[in-house]
Amino acid sequence: MLKSSTSDDEDDRYQLLDVTNDSSIFKYGKSYNIVDSVGSNEFRGFFRFTFFKLSTEQIKIFTSLTKLHIFNAKPHPFLRALLLIDANNPDEYVLLTLWATQRDFDEWQKTNDYQSIYSTLANPIYPSYSKNYYLVPMQKKEFH
Q1: What DSSP string runs through 50-64?
Q2: Spatial CA neighbour of 64 closest among 128, 117, 142, 11
Q3: CB–CB of 32/20 below 8 Å?
Q4: Cα(58)–Cα(124) distance, rounded to whole angstroms?
Q5: What is the pLDDT of residue 18?
Q6: Which pLDDT tens digit goes with each residue over 81-121?
Q7: Residue 140 near residue 119 (C-beta atoms within 8 A)
Q8: φ, ψ for residue 65, nearest 5 deg
């Protein structure tokens, strides 16, 4: 379970992130396929989701830049990065990056790598937006 670091809206405060391929008990939700991924298999720390919808030409540029500045870059300043495509809407993408702390992400935003990648989101089909979350530790409760 992820908790928003910015939202006070009850409907937008939490996000359930299921990284298995198991069937879900939930009726509604979004499913994504991984286009590219690099880093640790751990899901922890600060999560930055950037949602965007781009034209076919913009996607080609964006994926080239993410490959150059994220997926093939060494060393990785983040714990993990994933480029995801909406399973039902092939022009909708999410760039998910996981960081040890929000400060690490804030520092990366000042880099040329960040500016190069996100400059392609300047004129999307629909405005891109980002959401920040932290992992909420789940506590097991016993029911009697």
Answers
A1: EEEE--HHHHHHHHH
A2: 117
A3: no
A4: 8
A5: 61
A6: 999 999 888 889 999 999 999 999 999 999 988 888 887 77
A7: no
A8: -70, -40
